[in-house]
Amino acid sequence: MSSSVMPTPRRGGGQQPPAAVSTVGLRKSYGDRTVLDGIDLRIPAGTVFALLGPNGAGKTTTVQILSTLVSADGGQAQVAGHDVAASPDGVRAAIGVTGQFSAVDGLITGEENMLLMADLHHLSKAEGRRTAAELLERFDLTEAAKKPASTYSGGMKRRLDIAMTLVGAPRIIFLDEPTTGLDPRARHNMWQIIRELVSDGVTVFLTTQYLDEADELADRIAVLNEGKIVAEGSAEELKRLIPGGHVRLRFTDPSAYRSAASALREAARDDEALSLQIPSDGSQRELRSILDRLDTAGIEADELTVHTPDLDDVFFALTGTSTPSQIKEDVR
Q1: How many CA atoms lie within 13 A of 98 on its CB side?
Q2: Rounded distance between C-alpha atoms, residue 248 and residue 278, angstroms
Q3: What's 291's domain CATH number?
């Protein structure tokens, strides 16, 4: 499958929630290199959106434009109801950004990092101390608050980084590869923090090099390749774009196995394992059709499993490159 695959259609029905972030025809070039070639996005408020793409696809450039760090060459973008080009101050007041590299100052304590951020947001001393204390407790950093941040583990620094981002109570947070370099336990702790943020109504725009992270967290995922959005949808919708899905039926009774093989002639047989494999996109409609055919023939399988391609398969098929977990994002 090539990069000409069109985005999957959005689910219909009901009124869509308001968009926290939207872009139309967003374009950006550096010299003669086109980084973004007219991308359209609509991210509902209170959701997690993940942007995936190979090295140099433009993920970080997209975050930089939406967070007003660089300007677009064309198209329109709105964040929290503010036009990025016309009202950058309004955008900045509504967002928080945590980049690939921690903004934590290791020379001062965790508490001092928090209070410094409170000063930058023009909070009063009392309000700054209250906010810092609440966030340090929320992110399980109270015991370490008086210690230099240079003594923190990678996971603690990431938690402090996000706590600092939350000082200004942003409604939209851009997380650019927030779990890079963390061990599995710290990654899972970060995932829980992200879920809690969303449950509080915060919108999270996530870029990640870990496909399982997008699969675990994101309500919607977009795949960016050669400056274009080549597919968009939920993780399950994206997996259905890729051939290779199948339903596997296993039997313990050889007679039932032979009868099922006769009823499902398109199935691939494994006579030794008494199992049948039927090509399927994993949809409820196809699964019901297979079960109805078995019911009509009076056959019951002992085990039924549905196999669908994972996001690694999707990523490779759409971009023709290695998966993000095998590469590093470049500066753009």
Answers
A1: 29
A2: 6
A3: 3.30.70
Q: How far apart are CA 309 and CA 313, in angstroms?
A: 6
Nearest partner of 291 among 246, 265, 332, 260, judged by Cα? 260
CB 315 within 8 A of CB 211: yes
- Domain-located, residue 111: no
Q: Are residues 83 and 198 in the same domain?
A: yes
Does 99 share its domain with 204?
yes
pLDDT at 326 over 70: no
Shared domain for 211 and 258, answered yes or no, is no
- Give exposure, 214-229, as e/b (b: 16+ Cβ within 10 Å): bbbbbebbbbbbbbbb
Check if the beta carbon of residue 332 is closer than 8 Å to that of residue 100.
Answer: no
Indicate whether 156 and 283 sit together in one domain. no
CA-CA-CA-CA torsion sign (150, 151, 154, 158): negative
Q: Sign (positive/negative) of CA torsion 305, 306, 311, 315?
A: positive
Name which of 275, 262, 264, 267 is nearest 304 in CA terms.
Answer: 275
Question: In this structure, what are the phi and psi dihedrals at residue 67, rounded to the nearest 5 degrees?
Answer: -100, 10
Q: For position 100, what pLDDT does the model report?
A: 66
d(CA 10, CA 2): 21
Q: Would you say 43 and 203 are in contact if contact means Cβ atoms under 8 Å apart?
A: yes
**pLDDT on residue 332:** 37
What H or E segment, with its residue span, contains residue 94? helix 88-94
Q: How far apart are alpha carbons 204 and 49 in whole angstroms?
A: 6
Domain region containing 179: 19-104+152-240+315-326
Contact 109, 143 (CB under 8 A): no
pLDDT mean over 212-237: 93
Tally of domains within the chain: 2
Task: Provide the CATH number for the domain around residue 44.
Answer: 3.40.50.300
